[in-house]
Amino acid sequence: MKDNNEIVALIKDLKRRESDLKLDNEQLRHLNLALTIAEEKSAMLNSIIECSDDAIISKNLDSIITSWNGSAERIFGYVADEMIGTSILKLIPADREHEEAEILAQLRRGERIDHFETKRQRKDGTLVDVSLTISPILDSNGVIIGVSKIARDITEQRTAEVMGKRLSAIIESSDDAIISKDLNSIITSWNSAAARMFGYSADEMIGNSIFKIIPPDRVDEEPKILSQLKKGLRVHHFETVRMRKDGTLIDVSLTISPIKDRSGKVIGLSKIARDITEKKQIENKKDEFIGLVSHELKTPLTSLRSYIQVALHKAKQTQSSFISHALSKAEVQTKKMEKMITDFLNISRLQDGRMTLEQANFNLSTLIRSCAADAAITSSKHDMVFQGEETAYVYADEEKISLVLTNLISNAQKYSPRGSEITIRCDREDEFFSVSIQDQGIGIAEEDQKNMFQKFYRIRTEETRLIAGFGIGLHLVSSILELHGSAITVKSRPGEGSTFSFKLNAAISGSMEDIIV
């Protein structure tokens, strides 16, 4: 069967010879119609070939190229004038030239070649992965007169396959459980580490709900996580408890990321679960020790502070300036020790679930001024500035919020240069009062900001190595605010200071006498 271009040429030749052929009007009309149809088909075919994303090439049985479309130029880098009339071997790497003879032999048997994956060479010498579909071109007698070849660039596909295999190998060899699920919490993948960690095989979990490993008292975590991930946000190092097949519980740290399609729409979730049972056991032992030591230290420290206060009073009466100064310094240090021990005891109470809130209405601005004044006595190296609402009644636990403020102001003092300003603001925001503590200190790197509220986390830099601390203050702040349904936020850049902020609910409505009291 001839191609459309040959048919068009044949019909045009018949039209030129119509007087010799002595065609009547009816035969001429049919000839014109046939020519119109053939020209339309030819134009359509040429348009399809030129618009195709695939290289479409034809060649004769001597492997000489006879046609070359626009995509062939894009994929291989040669224009049509450079290729038509030359051998197809120009595109074939030397170590693959045997493929051409094998392809021609197969085509001479009348066989079509579908999706033969190989490599071809561009004009610049680089190799491109291609998938070839090759068909014989037959004349009207069924004799093969040429070859039609469609070459699809599969470089991206091959790269994706290699990356996919590499990723699969990483997932399977990981010590962490790596799980994926859809937006209905149905598990879609389950690696070997997940099987070891939770006791379920992949066959037992794929197609089932993730709730199968979530303890009944923690099922509310899943919708909260889904809500955050549907917004495209990641969940980092979320520590929780999950349940094994045998019913035992395991402490895990979860990092969860959204899986998005090409348009950016969230279509699923990827979850990495790390077994932190051993870490938790070590932390619990540490907490028990700290709680015990702190409790035992509190009583003698209280007595020591009382003795210092009495001695200071006596020294002032005798007008001994040296002893008065020394005892004043000792009293400041006992206050610092007392605060440290109080923080340790509160951490211990948090771990045991014994920290409860005693909420009431109180003036937050008054508490801020009081905490700032106490901090100025402990360290007079900074200027304390209060701005904002003078009257800010909130409903919260005054003692616990005092701990929050004391820790945040103390941190601002520790990490700020002498003589710099610490600004504390209290502003009304609808049904909340917002508090911010801004310093002019060394600032905090973005990576440290992600971890700084974890227990015992210390920022390790040259500037901080001589600054004392145990890394519990900010964890205590974060935990207390969480009990209040609030959260601590930080804005900071190295060298530009830091601002810590939180919000508290405005006072519950009642009589003015209730609020004033």
TrEMBL record:
The keyword Nucleotide-binding applies. Residues 114-166, 236-288 form the PAC domain. It catalyses: ATP + protein L-histidine = ADP + protein N-phospho-L-histidine. Residues 292-508 form the Histidine kinase domain. Residues 41-111, 163-233 form the PAS domain. Keywords: ATP-binding, Kinase, Membrane, Nucleotide-binding, Phosphoprotein, Transferase, Two-component regulatory system, Virulence. Its EC number is 2.7.13.3. SUPFAM superfamilies: ATPase domain of HSP90 chaperone/DNA topoisomerase II/histidine kinase, Homodimeric domain of signal transducing histidine kinase, PYP-like sensor domain (PAS domain). It is an enzyme of class 2 (transferase). One of its GO terms (biological process) is regulation of DNA-templated transcription. GO terms for molecular function: ATP binding; phosphorelay sensor kinase activity. NCBIfam families: sensory_box. This is histidine kinase. It comes from Pedobacter psychrodurus.
